[in-house]
Amino acid sequence: MTALVVGASSGLGRALANELARRGHALLLVASDLRDIDAIGADLRIRHGATVRSLALDLAREADPGARVAAALEGLPPLASVLLPVGLSRMDDDLGLDAARIGELLAINLHAPLAIAHALLPRLREARGVIVLFSSIAAVRGRGRNVVYAAAKRGIESLYESLRQRHRETELRVQLYRLGFLATNLTHGLALPMPAAAPDDVARLVVERLRRGSARWYLPRRFALVAMVVRLLPWPLFRRMQS
Amino acid sequence: MRGYAVADTELSSFDRQFHARCALQRPDRYRLLDALPADAPRIARGGGVSYVGASFGGGAISQSLDAFDRLLVFDAEHGHLTVEAGARIGDLQRFLLERGWYLPVAPGHPRASVGGCIAADVHGKNPARDGTFRTWLDALVVQRPHTEPHVVDREHDADLFGATCAGFGLTGTIVSATLRLARPPRALVLRRVPVANLAAAARVLREAANAPVLYGWHDGGAAHFGRGVVNIGLASDDDRDRVDALPPASADLPARVAPLPFTAWNRAGLAAANRWLDWRWCRAGQAPMTLGDALFPLNRARLYFAGFGHAGMAEAQWLVPHPRFEAFATALADLVARTRPRIALIASKLFAGTADGFSFDGNGVALAIQVAAPAAHGERAFLEALAELAIAHDGRPNLIKDSTLEASVARRAIGGFEAARARLARHDPQRLHTSELARRLAL
Questions:
Q1: Which one of B2, B92, B328, B365 is least enclosed by Cβ atoms within 10 Å?
Q2: Is the peptide bond before A199 cis (omega within 30 degrees of 0)?
Q3: Do residues B364 and B358 lie in contact, with contact meaning Cβ atoms separated by under 8 Å?
Q4: Following DSSP, what letter does each residue of B247-311 receive, concatenated?
Q5: Do strands B80-84 and B173-180 pair parallel, antiparallel, or not at all (unpaired)?
Q6: Looking at the partner chain, which of A11, A35, A47 has a beta carbon nearest the beta carbon of B28?
Q7: B101 in any annotated domain
Q8: What 3-state class would DSSP assign to A241?
Q9: What is the pTM of this model?
Q10: By the 8 A CB rule, do B86 and B46 touch?
Q11: Mutating which of A9, A37, A46 best tests the B interface, going by the most B Cβ atoms within 10 A?
Q12: Residue B439, SS3?
């Protein structure tokens, strides 16, 4: 069976690709730069004997990413898993972005997962497959930073609810991860309030749970507590938090 | 600098002689590898296990190649591997051995990267037989700022190929390399030949020049200076000597060994350790040897490195031509008797190559001398005197090992120093690639 990983060139996406290949899945890897996914594909073929296909897509500008992905799946074994760890955040996403930058963030973080999920739903239903969405701890409560990013991730959570509301577990399973800090290029050099999780560890858990039913999880698990505290914080206190 | 994900971090050399706060970038995609401003000084960083500050310092942004560790092409029939420069040698050996191949030239530290091995042109377990890392290097890809990656080999841009091997990362960032592989020995047996002094060791080394593994260990104390054992690893077809697979990555020596809170290698500690090693090792005999021990002897040396404490150590490594070696060994014994430095270890190896640029190669015997607390007055004086002695006997220093070496000494010790330096400058006229090593030796 084939697994699709969108945002496969680095961080959690790359770790997921590695874990899936290790467990024998055929893969379609999508990222913006062919050099990266070609290198990952070569590595997975050599190490694990995996069937890997690469698709370079600029999700910030691609009008119909779903159609491109669907076309790239032709000839591969049936699609059973769609994992969408794609994401982009900016340090200046603090209510000062222009329309073009807002559009870019929405395109990558929301439009692309929505469009790909829509395009692949018939195949996934046919295979009784699973779609895995990734939200963020940043989406728990809106703050003065990561404004567009958090809004897009809230959209992903809405997509999770819509898919679950529409489909029975026997037709399509939907899984959502609210991610805390991961040790990736995005957090490198930042003073984080708690340790970042290794993408390989997170990927192992996500792939292990692919056979499970629909559910929503926090990873690392300690972020469930963080989210609860942030959500329950009285408004006057929350307002005084550093944005 | 957030676009490039640069962190302010403290880095130190493996010998603990140089520490600096540095900007560290961790590119995880190809476009980030060349995302720094065109005029930003930079240096590639592999495993970060160099004894000297070769991958940081000198005002450069260190570019970690950790994420560039992928296998790109593997020809299992003919034994060729194209791999990204951040791949760790230990990981590669594990992958290759399972498929009937290995890298015959590998440094002692399994976390060294392919790029680091090329940049230092490292030697392995018997350089007289296997040459240095460049011997097994067919081609490489070099990234220079804001240009297309450059594919070079011995035919296409041989000058850049030559300058990059033992070029310490100063010609550009090595992105990937194509390596020739060899079939590993079916099994190994270790023959130990006790020797009374360094001159005797040189004779044993020369007689065993074709062994897959060949090195000597010697007592560095004044009382028994040079006494030791030459270890000769021989290929065996006997299944009873069958080598084990390499231990898992978790058994690899870490990139940073936490030092003990005190220096265990004081005079009493060294004397006791030498007596124990003398009793354990310096007896003639033969026994099966695991490939893990043969390829990565440092994996068992965690406590040894920790024992240097916060003061650390320094390794002076000099290659002395055969005709001068006996006189050099005798003079060295006299020097040690006079100055009584805290020498923790002496290792001897045989070389039979030709030096090119800054490479550590030649035709002779190399001694690696590890000294505890090298900043102390007596040890510093010994290292300076050792350098003079080696130069007087036509010795050649290993620049990538010795953090105590000064530019003036390196200039006198390496014939063609200026020509090698000019070659580096030809390939990086703006000197954008720099490091503490480059600064200290004025490369």
A1: B2
A2: no
A3: no
A4: PPGGGSPPSSPPPPSS-S-SHHHHHHHHHHHHHHH-S-EEEEE-HHHHH-GGGG-HHHHHTTGGG
A5: antiparallel
A6: A11
A7: no
A8: coil
A9: 0.95
A10: yes
A11: A46
A12: helix
Query: Residue B95: its chain A contacts at CB < 8 A?
Result: 47
User: Nearest CB to B26: which of A14, A35, A188?
Assistant: A188
Per-chain mean pLDDT for chain A: 95
Q: What is the CATH number of the domain that holds B338?
A: 3.30.70.2520
**Beta partners for residue B228, in sequence order:** B195, B218
Average confidence (pLDDT) over A102-125: 97
Residue range(s) defining the domain that contains residue B333:
187-408
Does B142 reside within a domain?
no
Note the helical H segments in B23-149: 30-33, 89-97, 114-120, 127-130
ipTM confidence score: 0.93
How many domains does chain B contain in total?
1
pLDDT digits (tens, 9 = 90+) for B332-341: 999 999 999 9
Q: How far is A39 from chain B (nearest CA, A)?
A: 6
Q: Could you give the domains of chain A?
A: 2-240 (3.40.50.720)
Residue A231 tokens, joined: 């959500």
Give which of B24, B29, B73, B82 to mutate to test A binding, by max A Cβ within 10 Å.
B29
Q: What is the DSSP letter of A141?
A: S
Q: Rounded to an integer, what distance in angstroms lies between the CA atom of residue A97 and that of residue B24?
A: 28
Within a domain: B393: yes
A35-65 tens-digit pLDDT: 999 999 999 999 999 999 999 999 999 999 9
Check residue B186 and give its pLDDT: 83
CB-CB under 8 Å, B5 with A188: yes
Phi then psi for B103, rounded to 5 degrees? -95, 115
Q: Which of A11, A36, A43 sits opposite B30 (nearest CB)?
A: A36
SS3 call for A191: coil
Cβ-defined contact of A188 to B2 (cutoff 8 Å):
no
In a domain, B438, yes or no: no
Question: What residues have CB less than 8 Å from B330, skipping those under 6 apart?
Answer: B199
Distances (CA, A) of B275 to A41, A60, B190, B286, B371: 53, 68, 21, 21, 17
Query: What was the pLDDT predicted at A242?
Result: 65
Q: Are strands A79-84 and A130-136 parallel, antiparallel or unpaired?
A: parallel
Kindly report the number of other CB atoms within 10 A of residue B313's CB atom: 26
